[in-house]
Amino acid sequence: MNRRLFPGVPLIESPIFSLANLPADWSAEEMSLAHSLHENGFAVIDFPDPDIDARIARMRRNLAPHFEMDLESPISDKTRGTRRMQDAWKFDEDVRAIASNSTILDLLGKLYGRPAFPFQTLNFPVGTEQRAHSDSVHFSSIPERFMCGVWLAMEDVPAEAGPLFYVRGSHRWPIMNNALIGRRGHGIELSSAQDPYGPAWEALCKIHDGKKEPFLARKGQALIWCANLLHGGSRQSDPTLTRWSQVTHYFFDDCIYYTPAFSDEAIGKIAMRNIVAIHDGKARPNSYMREEIANTACQNVNGKSPTSGFFRRFILRILS
Ligand SMILES: O=C(O)CCC(=O)C(=O)O
Ligand SMILES: [Fe+2]
């Protein structure tokens, strides 16, 4: 029903979503996850992998030497230095396995009504203390909302470690883009793609009385969040604590994959991405209603243009 009338919106965000309309063969857990995603914009699951503890132990050992801080000492300050590692799946088999978990892929495919695929991983040894944001300014889709994050706790997270937080229900607020806040994005450099939108997100939280609720996760629990859900990292009051976690970002089939922060959609300036699915290593060309769409001003996966400065502006002028 939902799928036939509104195939251009994820099933769980459909304007005619109703538990009664979900396929009869869904389990009680799938129904409850769908309900939570629809109502709150997030849902909590136990990560469906019997080897998860062994994977986490191996991965922490393998990734720790790549960070500048001393992650082993119980008294060292762990809030100094880079706190994130992007796309460790390229060299760490456990990061790749978590991103490619087939139960998660099947589940997301059902909840969204289109096949899902992982395209980016982030690993954090400590909290990020990131301000409230939605990931959709970094990566979004046309049609919109076909993107989600799965955040996995790789240890128990106490309040002092700066837990992930989310703003319940914020997935229903306006999707942030350049037109909304009155700026142009195409061809403009940013040190953080989130910067221009921070005050607007804060104002939305204020007017809606949005609360930043901490996710005091148990090791092995995961949070699925909708593309437009506001989330971030709480302040870390104890700098000696680690907070190992992995975020995997997923897209869904037959979409245009792009970076809204560097796009002006209304005039056709769309910073498309060249996406490769992590689990099968195959490219996912940008596509709209099954038609492949040529990528004119391509970006690599981390959101930065492959060229920069004068040369990039020159290329963009030729292409525009
Ligand atoms: O783990 C966190 O504190 C936030 C991570 C996050 O916002 C993201 O990866 O998109
Ligand atoms: Fe985020």
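qc> The two ends are 41 Å apart (CA to CA).
qc> done
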